[in-house]
What does this fold into?
Amino acid sequence: MTDEPETTYVVSVYEAPHWRTVLTTKDKAKALAWAREIGDKVRIEEITPKVKR
It folds into this structure.
């Protein structure tokens, strides 16, 4: 059994002077849809944990 790390997508919005995390999801399409819905000053970060051996 191989345990592959699952990527998490974090949708953040810029509120001066900081970025605020708004939503997190495991689904890339959902993250992109949320970003389009929110509008400008949005970023999506991909976080994938490293595999421990």
